[in-house]
Design a protein that fits this description.
The chain is of the alpha/beta class. The protein has one domain: SGNH hydrolase (Rossmann fold). Helices cover 34% and strands 11% of the residues. The protein has eleven helices and seven strands. It has a five-stranded parallel β-sheet, sandwiched between helices. Strands 6-7 form a two-stranded antiparallel sheet. The longest helix has 28 residues. The chain is globular, with a radius of gyration of 19 Å. The two termini are 29 Å apart.
Length: 340
């Protein structure tokens, strides 16, 4: 068990009021009991780049001590909903398949076990944030960035889709031919793996309500905001990704992924948290107000004498904003509460 219910949560909530839940949720949890909860996910859930790192977790997973599950727990406690987080197995770089397969962490580091091992028959709430790794977002970014293909991107282990195609041509590469076929194949895999995710969770924890968390928006609608340099000389928000690729990353990659995740969640009777729809006003391209670390912007995490850069992960304000949104979606969609 990674944590027990916090003293603050105990002070804030004496009972869990289930209210009227959708048909997909479980009403079998006693009203006086904290809800046994498991978080599955990748670095967005785990708080990649946010210091300090949780030394009790696998260091290669780069999980923050205070990450999205902590914010969700605290926000729900403010609404008198107690969570008993029995496990947070989020890990940077995790793909959907790592819910049921080991995740290789590189070098001589033992692999992370399948995330579903944290699930039990007693689990009543499962919150999952996965999908971008399966789609190959890291490979797409490396296809579009010469800097990421070099030493600056060494901590992003993926390779570009086709090293023979220049980074500056990535939008055209993905628009037709081999690049378009590759991207279509990745979306097909995400679709299959999302279906399997819900099946695996249902098998391990048949009485659990399931919440699927989408991804915060990376490229704002007004792409001109991404031309302004980050504060403190940290470069441009999207590094050297060509401007011609920005609309592609937004519409053909992220918006499309968000829609697919929403569709699969609806089909499974799960709650979907649409962070894409609510985060466009404070992306990495919004200076001091940004809620996402800029691509290759130095983060606050140093491990093994290496300063980890951001790879467009939420920073502390982003973690808090996303956690608030997830908590409200759980309160409304699982526990039948109105807006806080």
């Amino acid at each position: 068990m990674r944590r027990v219910t916090s003293p603050r949560a105990l002070a804030m909530a004496l009972v869990v009021v289930l209210g009227t839940a959708p048909a997909s949720t479980s009403a079998s949890t006693p009203a006086s009991a904290p809800v046994p909860t498991v978080f599955l996910g990748d670095g967005v859930v785990g708080g990649y780049g946010i210091a300090p790192v949780d030394e009790g977790a696998r260091l290669s997973c780069v999980r923050a001590q205070e990450n999205l599950p902590d914010v969700v727990e605290d926000q729900l406690a403010d609404q008198s909903i107690l969570l008993d987080i029995t496990a947070d197995v989020s890990c940077a770089g995790a793909e959907l398949r790592h819910v049921w397969e080991e995740q290789q962490l590189g070098g001589d580091v033992p692999p992370a076990p399948p995330q579903k091992r944290a699930l039990t028959k007693d689990t009543r709430l499962v919150v999952a944030g996965l999908g971008a790794g399966t789609l190959g977002l890291g490979r797409i970014l490396k296809q579009c960035s010469a800097k990421l293909r070099g030493t600056a991107g060494a901590l992003l282990p993926e390779k570009p889709v086709d090293e023979r195609s220049a980074a500056g041509d990535c939008a055209a590469y993905f628009a037709k031919g081999a690049g378009a076929d590759w991207l279509a194949g990745r979306f097909e895999q995400v679709d299959k793996d999302l279906e399997k995710l819900f099946s695996e969770v249902g098998s391990e924890s048949p009485s659990a309500s399931v919440v699927l968390v989408g991804y915060p928006r990376l490229v704002p609608k007004d792409v001109k905001r991404c031309r302004t340099a980050l504060p403190e000389g940290a470069g441009r928000p999207l590094a050297d990704v060509p401007e011609s690729a920005w609309p592609f990353l937004d519409q053909q990659v992220q918006s499309r992924l968000n829609s697919l995740m929403a569709q699969r969640a609806k089909a499974a009777g799960a709650v979907f948290v649409d962070l894409y729809a609510t985060t466009g006003g404070a992306t990495a391209c919004d200076g001091d107000a940004r809620t996402t670390g800029g691509l290759l912007e130095p983060s606050n995490v140093t491990l093994l004498h290496q300063r980890h850069p951001w790879f467009l992960h939420p920073n502390e304000p982003g973690r808090d904003q996303n956690g608030d949104a997830v908590a409200q979606a759980i309160a409304t969609g699982v526990f039948g509460r109105g807006p806080a």
